[in-house]
Amino acid sequence: MAKYHSTASKGVLRKVLSKIGLGKARDLDEIAAAPEAKWKRPWWVKTVDKPTVDIDWDVKERFDETKIQQKSFATYVGDEESQRLRKHKAEYTKQWVQENRPNYTLRDRALDIAVRQGAVGTSFLGFAQDPEHVKDGWGGALITPETMGVPPWQGTPEENSEMMRAALKMFGAAQVAFLELDEYNKRFIYSVDHDGMKIDFEDVEKPYEEENRKVIPNNAKWVIVFTVQMSEELLKRRVGKTPTPFSAAAVGSAYARSRVIFDDTQIFLHCLGYYGLMATWFNGLGIAPALGVMAGLGELSRLNRMITPEYGPLVRVFRIVTNIPLAPNKPIDAGIMRFCKTCKKCATECPSGTLSDATEPTWEVKGPWNSPGHKTWFEDSPKCMAYWLKATASCATCFSVCPFSKKDKSFMHHFVEATIAKVPVFNGLFTKMDDMLGYNIPRDPESWWDKNMPPYGIDGLGGTDLK
User: How many H helices and E strands in the chain?
Assistant: First the structure.
């Protein structure tokens, strides 16, 4: 594995591992040698030089995130309509709880609210930069190479990648991939963040923040992109096409768990002598699905979101910009985007009519909330947000009905996914089979309370790459 500068440095790193919860490994050599550090994809997943989505780099520019529907909804539908819908949500949320309406009761709402609360906050620079805020777990100040009198951790990009993948999976990530932040991939970092602050790249040694901007050093040449699983059992607890607090809880739980992964990763990097920059809001800093596609975690889809071979769309995607040298992964082709051309199930089942049912993707965006420069099925995002407010629960129906949303890793599902990747002529048949086998049938939300669910409501072995 990587070369330690001294016996003292190795001892320091062992202590770091102990403090952040990796104490069972004697050192990073053992972590990198662990199965979690290796990424074994299904045999039908092919790495390619270019992603399956077409990108026009002459058009693709860094995007202003304040244009997305979560930030500018009132601009797109008008202030009066925005206020009306938000009032509707507040009033009906309270009314349905008082009526003890099935699937929208007090305990259902409490579940949704509880899982969305993270154990830690979020910070662009990381709380590790504030020694008074973060301790080492035993009440002392965080260890760094400087405080221990040793150089920063040194390893090859390949060794560092194995180390970071193992650490992030220990922290709770489902998949971990790496991307070089070159002149093209930098265009997936927002020009303006969700909070209105500009994001600039500069020739400086360390990142910093000012009143109106965040600065990423040009030596931050890599992105760690990772996924967090969502519970299929929760996502599919809907009433017909209508979402419930259960499906909202599936999304919120993944976001809350990502906070812990963010915080642990920033501290881990800080202790090794590096930094990790992240969003101060889940959808901030950069376009996570785009970075995930470029890093080979999955392919872009009709959802205009990423679908992975292992978990389908049942993941949330996150990113950390860092200066630790990493070995980048390539994009993949598993037949997913080709399958979306004929499937159309998400568009058919979408209760708000947000998704496109066109057979072919297009370069033409639906509105200013879309980032132009790639060929896909662009969504009408304000329709989606309006429906969330009407339904009083954020919707994930499109995720739950996707044929790739299967936690069962049976031989038959492997066979279907492999055939989709290699023999696309059967794609239409497999969509019909998905309906015939009843996978599209919603699951009774109230029955969830009676189930003996695994941790986080997730089948922990589904999609595992351990051999």
Answer: 16, 11
